[in-house]
Amino acid sequence: MNPEKKKSSTENLLIGSDLEEKKESGTSDQDESVELEINLLKRKLKDVEEELRVKNNRIAELESLVKLNEENGIQIVKLPGIEDFEAAFEDIPSAGPKWMVIQRRIDGTVSFNTLNFMHKYWYKQGFGNLEREFWFGCQKLHELTTSRRHELYIQIADFDGTTAYARYDNFVIGSENEGYTLRSLGAYSGDAGDALSASVNKKFKHNGCYYGCYNREFCWSWWANSQCNLNGYYHSSQMNLTDENGIWWSKWNGRGRLNLKSCKMLIRPFQNE
To answer: What does the alpha-carbon distance between residue 69 and residue 62 come to, in Å, rounded to a whole number?
Structure first.
Protein backbone atom coordinates (compact mmCIF):
# COMPACT_ATOMS: atom_id res chain seq x y z
CA MET A 1 0.00 0.00 0.00
CA ASN A 2 1.09 3.49 -0.74
CA PRO A 3 2.56 4.99 2.46
CA GLU A 4 0.87 8.31 1.78
CA LYS A 5 -2.54 6.67 1.38
CA LYS A 6 -1.99 4.68 4.59
CA LYS A 7 -1.14 7.86 6.48
CA SER A 8 -4.19 9.64 5.10
CA SER A 9 -6.44 6.75 6.07
CA THR A 10 -5.07 6.73 9.62
CA GLU A 11 -5.59 10.46 9.97
CA ASN A 12 -9.17 10.13 8.78
CA LEU A 13 -9.83 7.44 11.38
CA LEU A 14 -8.39 9.63 14.12
CA ILE A 15 -10.41 12.64 12.99
CA GLY A 16 -13.57 10.53 12.85
CA SER A 17 -12.89 9.20 16.34
CA ASP A 18 -12.37 12.74 17.69
CA LEU A 19 -15.57 13.93 16.07
CA GLU A 20 -17.50 11.01 17.57
CA GLU A 21 -16.08 11.72 21.03
CA LYS A 22 -16.95 15.40 20.72
CA LYS A 23 -20.43 14.49 19.52
CA GLU A 24 -20.98 12.18 22.48
CA SER A 25 -19.53 14.76 24.86
CA GLY A 26 -21.73 17.45 23.36
CA THR A 27 -24.82 15.29 23.78
CA SER A 28 -23.95 14.65 27.41
CA ASP A 29 -23.40 18.35 28.12
CA GLN A 30 -26.64 19.18 26.38
CA ASP A 31 -28.55 16.61 28.47
CA GLU A 32 -27.15 18.06 31.69
CA SER A 33 -28.08 21.57 30.60
CA VAL A 34 -31.64 20.50 29.77
CA GLU A 35 -32.00 18.69 33.09
CA LEU A 36 -30.72 21.73 34.96
CA GLU A 37 -33.18 23.96 33.15
CA ILE A 38 -36.05 21.56 33.91
CA ASN A 39 -35.20 21.57 37.63
CA LEU A 40 -35.03 25.34 37.61
CA LEU A 41 -38.45 25.56 35.96
CA LYS A 42 -39.87 23.11 38.50
CA ARG A 43 -38.66 25.29 41.36
CA LYS A 44 -40.12 28.39 39.72
CA LEU A 45 -43.41 26.57 39.19
CA LYS A 46 -43.49 25.56 42.85
CA ASP A 47 -42.90 29.18 43.90
CA VAL A 48 -45.66 30.39 41.58
CA GLU A 49 -48.07 27.74 42.91
CA GLU A 50 -47.37 28.83 46.50
CA GLU A 51 -47.86 32.48 45.58
CA LEU A 52 -51.12 31.57 43.85
CA ARG A 53 -52.28 29.60 46.89
CA VAL A 54 -51.68 32.58 49.18
CA LYS A 55 -53.49 34.92 46.78
CA ASN A 56 -56.45 32.51 46.46
CA ASN A 57 -56.76 32.34 50.25
CA ARG A 58 -56.72 36.11 50.42
CA ILE A 59 -59.37 36.34 47.69
CA ALA A 60 -61.53 33.81 49.54
CA GLU A 61 -61.20 35.86 52.73
CA LEU A 62 -62.16 39.08 50.99
CA GLU A 63 -65.07 37.41 49.19
CA SER A 64 -66.29 36.09 52.54
CA LEU A 65 -66.10 39.54 54.07
CA VAL A 66 -67.91 41.12 51.12
CA LYS A 67 -70.64 38.49 51.28
CA LEU A 68 -70.96 38.95 55.02
CA ASN A 69 -71.20 42.68 54.86
CA GLU A 70 -73.90 42.91 52.22
CA GLU A 71 -76.39 43.61 55.00
CA ASN A 72 -76.56 43.99 58.75
CA GLY A 73 -78.06 41.55 61.22
CA ILE A 74 -77.04 37.98 62.07
CA GLN A 75 -74.65 36.48 59.53
CA ILE A 76 -72.58 33.31 59.18
CA VAL A 77 -68.90 34.24 59.19
CA LYS A 78 -66.57 32.13 57.05
CA LEU A 79 -62.89 33.03 57.28
CA PRO A 80 -59.76 31.02 56.39
CA GLY A 81 -58.27 29.23 59.39
CA ILE A 82 -61.21 30.02 61.69
CA GLU A 83 -64.20 27.79 62.38
CA ASP A 84 -67.46 29.20 60.98
CA PHE A 85 -69.53 31.18 63.47
CA GLU A 86 -72.56 33.44 63.72
CA ALA A 87 -72.14 37.15 64.41
CA ALA A 88 -74.25 40.29 64.59
CA PHE A 89 -73.36 43.22 62.31
CA GLU A 90 -74.53 46.82 62.35
CA ASP A 91 -73.61 50.27 61.10
CA ILE A 92 -72.55 53.15 63.33
CA PRO A 93 -73.69 56.46 61.76
CA SER A 94 -70.71 58.39 63.10
CA ALA A 95 -68.12 55.62 62.61
CA GLY A 96 -69.03 53.87 59.38
CA PRO A 97 -70.62 50.58 58.32
CA LYS A 98 -70.23 46.88 58.99
CA TRP A 99 -69.16 46.60 62.60
CA MET A 100 -69.29 43.20 64.28
CA VAL A 101 -70.92 43.33 67.72
CA ILE A 102 -68.91 41.40 70.32
CA GLN A 103 -70.80 42.40 73.47
CA ARG A 104 -74.14 43.99 74.29
CA ARG A 105 -75.92 44.90 77.55
CA ILE A 106 -79.38 46.46 77.43
CA ASP A 107 -81.75 45.10 80.07
CA GLY A 108 -80.22 42.38 82.23
CA THR A 109 -82.10 39.50 80.59
CA VAL A 110 -78.84 37.56 80.24
CA SER A 111 -76.74 37.10 83.36
CA PHE A 112 -73.06 37.84 82.94
CA ASN A 113 -72.47 36.55 86.46
CA THR A 114 -71.82 32.88 85.72
CA LEU A 115 -71.49 29.95 88.08
CA ASN A 116 -67.87 29.67 89.16
CA PHE A 117 -67.33 26.09 87.94
CA MET A 118 -68.64 27.02 84.44
CA HIS A 119 -67.10 30.46 84.37
CA LYS A 120 -64.02 29.91 82.20
CA TYR A 121 -65.91 27.83 79.64
CA TRP A 122 -68.73 30.34 79.07
CA TYR A 123 -66.49 33.36 78.74
CA LYS A 124 -64.15 31.42 76.44
CA GLN A 125 -66.90 30.14 74.12
CA GLY A 126 -69.36 33.00 74.42
CA PHE A 127 -72.96 33.05 75.64
CA GLY A 128 -76.26 34.88 75.38
CA ASN A 129 -78.57 35.97 72.56
CA LEU A 130 -76.97 37.68 69.54
CA GLU A 131 -80.13 39.72 69.00
CA ARG A 132 -80.11 41.08 72.55
CA GLU A 133 -77.50 40.54 75.29
CA PHE A 134 -74.41 38.41 74.81
CA TRP A 135 -70.65 37.95 75.16
CA PHE A 136 -68.97 36.97 71.89
CA GLY A 137 -66.31 34.69 73.38
CA CYS A 138 -62.63 35.24 74.16
CA GLN A 139 -61.35 32.48 71.88
CA LYS A 140 -62.97 33.92 68.76
CA LEU A 141 -61.78 37.39 69.74
CA HIS A 142 -58.24 36.07 69.96
CA GLU A 143 -58.46 34.35 66.56
CA LEU A 144 -59.94 37.38 64.83
CA THR A 145 -57.75 40.09 66.32
CA THR A 146 -54.52 38.17 65.73
CA SER A 147 -55.40 37.26 62.14
CA ARG A 148 -55.39 40.90 61.06
CA ARG A 149 -55.52 44.37 62.60
CA HIS A 150 -58.89 45.33 64.14
CA GLU A 151 -60.33 48.46 65.69
CA LEU A 152 -62.65 48.52 68.70
CA TYR A 153 -65.66 50.77 69.24
CA ILE A 154 -67.39 51.00 72.63
CA GLN A 155 -70.72 52.78 73.04
CA ILE A 156 -72.18 53.53 76.47
CA ALA A 157 -75.43 55.17 77.62
CA ASP A 158 -76.78 56.38 80.96
CA PHE A 159 -80.35 56.36 82.28
CA ASP A 160 -81.21 59.83 80.95
CA GLY A 161 -80.38 58.81 77.36
CA THR A 162 -76.97 60.48 77.12
CA THR A 163 -74.46 58.47 75.11
CA ALA A 164 -70.68 58.48 74.62
CA TYR A 165 -68.10 56.38 72.86
CA ALA A 166 -64.49 55.21 73.06
CA ARG A 167 -62.63 54.04 69.98
CA TYR A 168 -59.29 52.22 69.74
CA ASP A 169 -57.42 51.52 66.51
CA ASN A 170 -55.44 48.34 67.28
CA PHE A 171 -57.41 45.89 69.44
CA VAL A 172 -55.57 42.60 70.10
CA ILE A 173 -56.48 39.75 72.48
CA GLY A 174 -53.91 37.13 73.51
CA SER A 175 -54.35 33.35 73.52
CA GLU A 176 -55.94 31.13 76.16
CA ASN A 177 -52.46 30.28 77.46
CA GLU A 178 -51.91 34.02 77.96
CA GLY A 179 -55.18 34.32 79.88
CA TYR A 180 -56.73 36.23 76.94
CA THR A 181 -54.54 39.18 77.85
CA LEU A 182 -55.48 42.56 76.39
CA ARG A 183 -52.30 42.81 74.33
CA SER A 184 -53.05 46.11 72.63
CA LEU A 185 -55.63 48.86 72.18
CA GLY A 186 -53.74 51.29 69.99
CA ALA A 187 -54.65 54.97 69.87
CA TYR A 188 -57.76 56.21 71.70
CA SER A 189 -60.37 58.65 70.40
CA GLY A 190 -63.86 59.54 71.59
CA ASP A 191 -65.83 61.46 74.22
CA ALA A 192 -66.25 58.78 76.90
CA GLY A 193 -62.71 59.06 78.23
CA ASP A 194 -60.05 56.36 78.04
CA ALA A 195 -60.99 53.95 80.81
CA LEU A 196 -59.70 50.77 79.17
CA SER A 197 -56.01 51.45 78.54
CA ALA A 198 -55.24 50.76 82.20
CA SER A 199 -56.01 47.11 81.41
CA VAL A 200 -53.46 46.70 78.59
CA ASN A 201 -51.21 43.70 79.30
CA LYS A 202 -53.68 42.48 81.94
CA LYS A 203 -55.41 39.11 81.85
CA PHE A 204 -59.12 38.60 81.31
CA LYS A 205 -60.27 36.98 84.55
CA HIS A 206 -62.97 36.96 87.16
CA ASN A 207 -62.27 40.00 89.30
CA GLY A 208 -64.99 39.33 91.81
CA CYS A 209 -67.04 36.41 93.08
CA TYR A 210 -70.01 36.28 95.41
CA TYR A 211 -72.43 33.73 96.81
CA GLY A 212 -75.97 33.83 95.49
CA CYS A 213 -78.98 31.57 95.84
CA TYR A 214 -78.40 28.12 97.34
CA ASN A 215 -74.97 29.37 98.42
CA ARG A 216 -73.59 28.92 94.90
CA GLU A 217 -70.61 31.03 93.87
CA PHE A 218 -71.07 33.41 90.93
CA CYS A 219 -68.33 35.34 89.09
CA TRP A 220 -68.00 38.01 86.42
CA SER A 221 -65.03 38.59 84.13
CA TRP A 222 -63.21 41.62 82.79
CA TRP A 223 -59.61 42.66 82.27
CA ALA A 224 -57.78 43.20 85.54
CA ASN A 225 -56.71 46.57 86.97
CA SER A 226 -59.50 48.24 85.06
CA GLN A 227 -61.10 51.65 85.40
CA CYS A 228 -64.30 50.24 83.97
CA ASN A 229 -66.39 47.09 83.81
CA LEU A 230 -68.90 46.29 81.09
CA ASN A 231 -69.49 42.66 82.11
CA GLY A 232 -70.69 43.15 85.68
CA TYR A 233 -74.13 42.75 87.23
CA TYR A 234 -76.92 44.69 85.49
CA HIS A 235 -78.72 47.19 87.75
CA SER A 236 -82.07 48.38 86.41
CA SER A 237 -81.84 51.83 87.99
CA GLN A 238 -79.09 54.40 88.34
CA MET A 239 -76.90 54.24 91.43
CA ASN A 240 -73.36 54.72 92.63
CA LEU A 241 -71.92 51.23 92.90
CA THR A 242 -70.25 50.19 96.13
CA ASP A 243 -67.99 47.70 94.35
CA GLU A 244 -66.86 46.84 90.81
CA ASN A 245 -69.68 44.40 90.08
CA GLY A 246 -71.79 46.55 87.79
CA ILE A 247 -71.63 48.28 84.40
CA TRP A 248 -69.56 51.44 84.65
CA TRP A 249 -66.98 53.59 82.84
CA SER A 250 -65.07 55.76 85.30
CA LYS A 251 -63.56 58.25 82.82
CA TRP A 252 -66.87 59.50 81.46
CA ASN A 253 -67.04 63.05 82.87
CA GLY A 254 -65.66 61.83 86.18
CA ARG A 255 -68.67 59.60 86.90
CA GLY A 256 -66.64 56.99 88.72
CA ARG A 257 -68.78 53.93 89.41
CA LEU A 258 -72.11 55.42 88.44
CA ASN A 259 -73.74 52.49 86.68
CA LEU A 260 -74.79 52.58 83.03
CA LYS A 261 -78.08 51.66 81.42
CA SER A 262 -76.55 50.04 78.33
CA CYS A 263 -73.32 49.39 76.49
CA LYS A 264 -71.98 47.52 73.51
CA MET A 265 -68.61 46.66 72.04
CA LEU A 266 -67.97 46.32 68.30
CA ILE A 267 -64.97 45.49 66.12
CA ARG A 268 -64.08 45.52 62.43
CA PRO A 269 -60.89 45.20 60.35
CA PHE A 270 -58.91 48.41 60.68
CA GLN A 271 -59.67 50.97 58.01
CA ASN A 272 -57.16 53.78 57.59
CA GLU A 273 -59.66 56.46 56.64
So the answer is: 10
